[in-house]
Each structure stands twice: as structure tokens, then as C-alpha cells.
Amino acid sequence: MPAKRIIPCLDVKDGRTVKGINFKGLADVGDPVELGARYAADGADELVYLDISASADGRRTFTDLVGHIATRINIPFTVGGGIASVDDASRLLDAGADKITINSAAVANPDLISAIASRYGSQFVVVAIDARQSDGRWMVTTHGGTRLTDRELFAWADEAWSRGAGEIMFTSMDHDGTRSGYPCGVFSRLCDSIDIPVIASGGAGSADDIAEVLTAGKADAALAASIFHYGDMTVGSLKQLLKEKGIEIRL
């Protein structure tokens, strides 16, 4: 069985790493290149950078930043945010990113998944899915969880896989930011329903939460931000705790 992966996530606005709740009350938490280098040195398996800039100037700054990251960091990194076309994906992959992640744009235009996968390969495409419970069903949301769609989580994940997604990154909007753990039953069902890796995102408050989603939840990787940015634990200390719990992990 492949080793489970730990993936720090960095939200970037106008060239700086920021953290807030639902993109509000954003606080500067450091330089994205230096933070990424620190996490890589501490044992992170991969990194995810999400561009939350609203302006065209911010997008250009992010593209330049991806080039700097590629020269400094020796582990794979995924970038996302504002990717709505093959050209957008090309710009970031050509700058040095290893993978791109798409979310709302893929829901609006599922052919985008196929188009990017056809040009670059499925291994370059991560489809992020934000979903919440609605009338007893897990329904997909877009635009940071603010817009409920008529797409159901498991059907959409299956379609994304069939269209060429290489990985699914799933966030429960009911748990995101609560630091109360993951809905492991949902993750387990999702992982059983598709034959590509699933990254668990949102809800981590402790090493026990991450251990649970990697075991009972069957997730292939765990994404986390606040617990690393604010020093609750380091990547290395988290991985050591997971190793002690018998989870296959690269130290």
C-alpha cells in the first residue's frame, strides 16, 4: 500500500501567504516561498498553493511566484485558484507547477477536466470538490462553498474521474474550519467509489483527526493549513505521531 501523504496548504493573496476563515479576516502569515521551503525541509510530501487574489495583477504576481517556488522547493507542488481554461493551466504548469487543481470552473464546464488531462495527462489534474449535506444528501457547492449546485458528491467525483482527473481533493464545508475532525464515513464511501487517490481537506484539529481520516476514512493524503501555519505542530512531529499509530508514512 502506498505511504499516506501530508500536504500543507498555503493560500496566497498578492504574493503573500494569508489565513482567515472563509477568506475573511485575512492575516499575513509569511512568505510563501520561505514557508514552503520550511515545510519541505520538515518532511512534507507535497504542497498546495491556492491563489485567492481577485485582480489580474494578483494573478500575474502568482504566476511569477510559481516560478520562484519551482526553483526553491524540491517536492511536488500543486497550484490552483482562478484556473478557468487550458491556457490558465498551461501558464502555471509552464511556470514550474507539478499539478493544477480546479474546482468551480470544472463544475461549470466539466469538459475543462478532459481538455487539461488530454493535453498534459491525468497525473497533472486534481479536481477539488467542496460539498455539504442538504436534505440528507451530500451536494456539491462552488465559489468557496457559497453556492449550492444540483450535483451530488459521489456522482460528480465519478464523473471527474471518468473525464480524466488524477486525484480528488474533497472538503466537507460542514466541517471546514471547525477543527472537529472529518466525516470519515463519507470519505470512506468516496474512496471506495473511485479508483484514484482522495485528498482529505478541512476539519483537522489534531493528529488524531488526521490519523482517523487516513485509516477509517481511507484517504490517501491529508491537507492542512492552520495547524502548521500557527505552530500547533510541525509536519515532522505530525508524521512521527502517525508513524507511532502504525500508519505507513514517509519520515
Concise synopsis of the structure shown:
With 251 residues, the chain is an alpha/beta fold. The longest helix is centred in the N-terminal third of the chain and has 17 residues.
What does this structure look like?
It is a single chain. The protein has 251 residues and is α/β, with parallel strands linked by helices. Helices cover 38% and strands 28% of the residues. It contains ten helices and twelve strands. It has helices spanning 32-41, 56-72, 86-95, 104-108, 111-120, 153-162, 184-193, 207-215, 226-229, 235-244; strands spanning 5-13, 16-21, 24-30, 47-51, 77-80, 99-102, 125-134, 137-142, 147-152, 167-172, 198-201, 221-224. The protein has an eight-stranded parallel beta barrel, surrounded by seven helices. Helix 8 (207-215) links the parallel strand 11 (198-201) and strand 12. Helix 1 packs parallel to helix 2 (56-72). The longest helix is centred in the first third of the chain and has 17 residues, at 56-72. The two termini are 16 Å apart. The model has no long low-confidence stretch (mean pLDDT 93).
